[in-house]
Specification:
mainly alpha; Ferritin; metal-binding
């Protein structure tokens, strides 16, 4: 009896090994991947565009805010800009892992992003624009996570990590309005 089980395990392991060797150029996308890759890559590229637009908005606000009394606000904007760029890099890396191409085309950014760019010069309007964008990002990530949690746990985990930081950003922007 034990011998049959050992043969079954060996056969399964051999099948897995053969399948893994068939399409090595697919990298992380194995035969067992259950997600709809092309649809997911489009979703991730929209999230990438949103993160890049947020990076640009936070960076612009950093350079636009003046005065010694706004040093802490400037620092907050720059920290958020850096974190948005980290999110963009994480998303681009996942797109590549899924054998897709990250879309960094400037002409596509605003069309594909869930959030808007804002060029206001008023501090309260800057904070509100950032808070609205963060809330949009939060809702977008929540929807994506729900859609992906069963078919692509790796991407779902990545998006959950980003979502957590976006929630922090929203709370920080909200506290600046008090």
């Amino acid at each position: 009896m034990k011998n049959d089980k050992d043969n079954s395990t060996s056969s399964t392991e051999q099948d897995m090994s053969n399948n893994a060797a068939k399409k090595m150029t697919d990298g992380a996308v194995t035969q067992g991947y259950r997600g709809e890759r092309h649809k997911l890559i489009a979703l991730l590229n929209a999230a990438l565009a949103s993160e890049l637009v947020c990076f640009l908005r936070y960076t612009r606000f950093y350079y636009t805010v003046g005065g010694l009394s706004n040093t802490a606000l400037k620092a907050e904007f720059m920290q958020h800009a850096r974190e948005e760029m980290q999110h963009a890099n994480m998303l681009a890396e996942r797109i590549v892992q899924l054998n897709g191409k990250p879309d960094f085309d400037p002409e596509n950014l605003l069309n594909n992003a869930h959030t808007q760019y804002d060029d206001t010069d008023k501090i309260q309007a800057m904070i509100k624009a950032n808070l609205v964008a963060e809330r949009i990002a939060i809702e977008s990530y929540r929807k994506m996570i729900l859609e992906l949690q069963d078919s692509d746990p790796t991407t779902s985990l990545l998006l959950t990590t980003i979502l957590s930081q976006e929630e922090e950003h929203a709370e920080e922007m909200r506290s600046l309005l008090d």
